[in-house]
């Protein structure tokens, strides 16, 4: 795994502010509305966690990633408060299937503001729950602690997992050697391909079976009107 050590050594040689800035950018995008579906924020944070060469740098990464991840939540929350249910029909909300929007709203109905924390590790839904909290006009004093708790749970998971992985690289290298490294990389790539194909297939099925009539409000708060979901009463005159 000498090539992995080379990558980690290169990252370790970068100025710490540059590393933290990159971590902040990817962490914000990872939880940002819509963007988090395609941005590999977890992978970047894992790699940067493995590259940290001191406890101070590691703790700094943990703190920065947590704040940045919560900042991504705030983007969705503010957009939800600004546009309400219309957010589902405009960019970037329209890029997401109605089924996933409904899952996020159901989580909010069931758990309230803490759905932002509880859905943190659920693909796609984690980027939508803050937006639905904004749509439902969840009070900010309730949203903020849930967002910070979820963000720092996510940060701890990936930053310290990366640190543990980085500490294990040399030990793994001595056990499996270069040939074993190639085999391991191939197996990981195949597993990722299979996982991605299955997830896309599941999302396609969910989209095709999504209800045609969308919910116009979240019952728990009931602040949104359904005017934009009502059919037009006028027709074309011949």
Written account of the structure:
By secondary structure, this protein is an all-alpha fold. 70% of the residues lie in helices and 0% in strands. The radius of gyration is 21 Å and the shape is globular.
In short:
By secondary structure, this protein is an all-alpha fold. 70% of the residues lie in helices and 0% in strands.
- Which class best fits the helix and strand makeup? mainly alpha
The helix fraction, in percent, is 55-70%
Shape from CA axes? globular
CA-based gyration radius? 21 Å
On the 0 to 100 scale, the average pLDDT is: 77
Order of helices and strands: HHHHHHHH
Largest sheet: none
Low-confidence stretches: 209-238
Instruction: Indicate the proportion of strand residues.
Output: under 5%
Count of beta strands: 0
Task: Specify the number of helices.
Answer: 8
Distance between the termini: 74 Å
Topology of this protein?
Elements: H1 2-13, H2 16-31, H3 41-51, H4 55-83, H5 98-111, H6 115-118, H7 125-135, H8 140-208
Helix pairs in contact: 1-3, 1-8, 2-3, 2-4, 3-8, 4-7, 4-8, 5-7
Distinctive features:
globular; 238 residues; mainly alpha; 70% helix
């Amino acid at each position: 795994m000498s090539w992995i050590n080379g990558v980690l050594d290169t990252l370790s040689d970068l100025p710490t502010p540059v590393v933290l800035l990159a971590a902040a950018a990817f962490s914000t995008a990872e939880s940002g509305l819509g963007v988090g579906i395609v941005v590999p924020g977890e992978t970047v944070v894992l790699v940067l966690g493995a590259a940290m060469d001191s406890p101070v740098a590691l703790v700094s990464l943990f703190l920065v990633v947590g704040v940045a991840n919560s900042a991504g939540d705030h983007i969705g929350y503010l957009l939800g408060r600004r546009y309400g249910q219309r957010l589902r029909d405009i960019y970037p909300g329209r890029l997401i299937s109605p089924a996933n929007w409904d899952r996020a709203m159901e989580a909010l109905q069931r758990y309230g503001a803490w759905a932002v924390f509880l859905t943190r590790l659920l693909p796609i839904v984690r980027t939508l729950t803050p937006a639905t909290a904004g749509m439902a006009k969840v009070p900010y004093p309730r949203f903020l602690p849930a967002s910070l708790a979820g963000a720092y749970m996510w940060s701890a998971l990936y930053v310290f997992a990366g640190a543990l992985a980085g500490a294990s690289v040399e030990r793994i290298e001595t056990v499996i050697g270069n040939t074993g490294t190639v085999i391991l990389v191939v197996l990981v790539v195949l597993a990722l391909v299979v996982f991605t194909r299955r997830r896309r297939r599941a999302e396609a099925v969910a989209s095709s079976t999504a209800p045609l009539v969308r919910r116009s409000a979240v019952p728990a708060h009931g602040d949104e009107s359904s005017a934009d979901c009502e059919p037009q009463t006028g027709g074309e005159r011949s």
